[in-house]
Amino acid sequence: MIFSELYGAYYNAMAKILAKAIEHPLKKGELRSIVDAYAFEESILNIETAIDEERWQLIKKDGTTPIMHVPSMPLTILQKRWLKAITLDPRIKLFEEEISGLDEIEPLFTREDFFIFDKYADGDNFEDAAYIKNFRCILDAIRNKYPLELTTMNRKGNILSMVVMPKWLEYSQKDDKFRLIGVGRKSNDTINLGRIITCEPYTKEYIPKESVKNQESARVVEFELIDERNALERVLLHFAHFKKQAERLEETRYKVTVAYDAEDEIEVLIRILSFGPMVRVIGPDNFVNLIKERLKRQKSCGR
Amino acid sequence: MAYSELIKKFNRIREYMREFYVYGFKSREEYNKKSARSYDDERRRIESWLGENMQFRQSAEGKNVFISIDSRISAHNPLYKAWKTKSFTDGDITLHFILLDILSAPEIAMTIQEIMELVDDYISEFDHPRYFDESTVRKKLKEYVNEGILISEKQGKVLYYRRAAEGKLYGTDTLDFFSEAAPCGVVGSYLLDKLPSHEAHFAFKHHYITNAMDSEILLTLFEAMHQKKYISVEAINRHKDKISENYIVPLKIMISVQNGRQYLMAFAPRFKKMIAYRTDNIISVKLAEKCEQFDELRGKLNSMLPHMWGVNTQSVSGKRMEHIEFTVCYEEYEQFIHNRLEREKRCGTVEKISDCESRFSADVYDASELIPWIRTFICRITKLHISNKELEKQFWDDMENMYKLYDLGGADAK
């Protein structure tokens, strides 16, 4: 069972509360801050009352507890089976040197059980030894916050050398690629891991360069949608991973606002075009012009 | 019943969260098919769980509630919180911590009577002790054995209980990544809850988080496939607002990372064909008897995949297979367009027919599934041939309508 109180926020918060009460008699302030951190906005009303009324016979009036050991729970079969399933994923080699302790466990799913049918074909090679080495080197630098010296190959096949302070790794399921997001370079602090040839800690004195990149990267596009051929559901689900708002204008006409990053403009543009005449961009003007430009060029293609 | 932040069943909240997240334009009145109270309770719960992700807008039709999340800046799927809200009794939580405290190490093995005595000792420390009867404790122990937290073993005629070994957890980076990138990732989120809070080192682009709401359904489907069983599945047709029940063989989960949908591909003996069910339309799944032809049917589906662009295994035209091909043009410096075709094609072939032209062609069960992709090449499409002529005509009619939408004229487009 996935939906079980064993994994619930209340049990989790209560485990932390008991751990504190084992250390010393629990204070009201401690209880509240634990509930704030591990449960939900309104949880304090329920948890505090249940303890005060001794409905949960775990914390006594004086803040002590009869529980003697810091609460812990062994992994459930469900958790072990999920862990086993991820060991069958080729990407596990990026993270774990050795997989052990799950020999007797049946995986929750195997690679035969599911298929991602629309990811791009040129994803990263997660089983390549050099890729794995670079990945781990970057992850270590992110964890320990030190700069890296990289050599990469650009689209034209030229080898470039650079120093970057890595901040995090971004993974796209659609591209099936990792990208390093960093700071400290003049421009373009986003580097595809698949293009990295070597990666070493940078040990000389590190002086980050000031970025000349336009900081105003947040953009918004507004479009109207006609709900024909199930367009409403398709469009809203398609753009679900962006911050967005939808508003009904008439029975089958809607206005949708999608926020996106400037670097993704072309992608957003072609994704909007994919919905054909069911979607009409209404603003901003420069986005409308981008659409018009493409349509004009299409007309010049003969049809 | 009085309002409670926790819930007993997941299905109703699953529907509301989907509505708030995907749509978010409906007013309270539109949700009130069942009862206004129900809407108010569910909205309040989700607000309590998701906090700042929950937003409001006042429209002419009333107050609209919606969930707004930029999944690119959320290291952890906020919708997983909904899975951590299962209700329980006062006795459940009390017994949980006492039993695991009594059986605090795998070496400690006890009978039910020994456990009962110790449970009473814990409870007796309270001003108004609420003692448990033996059947309640026995039931809880059995439940925990089934979950794998405890182990029961017989020595002679006596049954002993002890704690299972803790089990090895992977590192936080591993769990952070796979809890977002693997199916049933909410289980990874449960594992992360066992670990101290930490800085996230991953972000996710093109990340559809709504499938999290179907985790329990997915789990049951995986289990049915694992056991090679038939299932009885209850699914809703949202357009007709009609629920139907079907008896099918589940074969594979098909996941889209481009449109956020997730499907079950199954063989339907009644119709003698493969059918796709959207997992978010599945209300319940019940396992039935074993299907002896499971391997054969899965093999059949696998052999069909090279002719499936999406999940359809038949076209509107009724033809067994449809042919589709289109040509795009580009400048010499725009070779990335050819690369796009290679990278984005899911089946079929791509040929370079000149330095500045490439052609894609495929035989597929349903050519209409390719239309949205072909439209992403608008401004470069020089030829399009589809064996389904009606579909081809519709493509160009749609183009005409797009020209009109942007005041670029229609008729002279040809």
Gist of the model:
With 303 residues, chain A is α+β, with helices and mostly antiparallel strands. Helices cover 32% and strands 23% of the residues of chain A. In chain A, a hairpin with a 2-residue loop joins strand 8 and strand 9.
Write the SSE topology.
The complex is a heterodimer of chains A (303) and B (414).
Chain A: H1 9-23, H2 28-38, H3 43-52, H4 77-87, E1 114-116, H5 129-144, E2 148-153, E3 159-172, E4 177-183, E5 190-192, E6 196-201, E7 218-226, H6 231-238, E8 243-250, E9 253-261, H7 265-273, E10 279-283, H8 285-300
Antiparallel strand pairs in A: 2-3, 2-6, 3-4, 4-5, 7-9, 7-10, 8-9
Chain B: H1 11-23, H2 28-31, H3 36-50, E1 54-59, E2 62-67, H4 90-102, E3 109-110, H5 112-123, H6 134-147, E4 150-155, E5 158-163, H7 172-181, H8 186-193, E6 202-205, H9 215-226, E7 229-237, E8 242-255, E9 262-268, E10 273-278, E11 282-290, H10 294-304, E12 322-329, H11 336-344, E13 349-354, E14 357-364, H12 371-375, E15 381-386, H13 389-405
Antiparallel strand pairs in B: 1-2, 3-5, 4-5, 7-8, 7-11, 8-9, 9-10, 12-14, 12-15, 13-14
Helix pairs in contact in B: 1-3, 4-5, 7-8
Write up this protein.
- In chain A, 32% of the residues lie in helices and 23% in strands.
- Chain A folds into 3 domains: 1-73; 129-201, SH3 type barrels; 218-300, 2-Layer Sandwich (Alpha-Beta Plaits).
- Chain A has a 5-stranded antiparallel beta sheet with strand order 5-4-3-2-6, with helices on one face. Chain A has a 4-stranded antiparallel beta sheet with strand order 8-9-7-10, covered by helices on one side.
- In chain A, strand 8 and strand 9 (253-261) form a beta hairpin.
- Chain A is extended.
- Chain A has 8 helices and 10 strands.
- With 414 residues, chain B is α+β, with helices and mostly antiparallel strands.
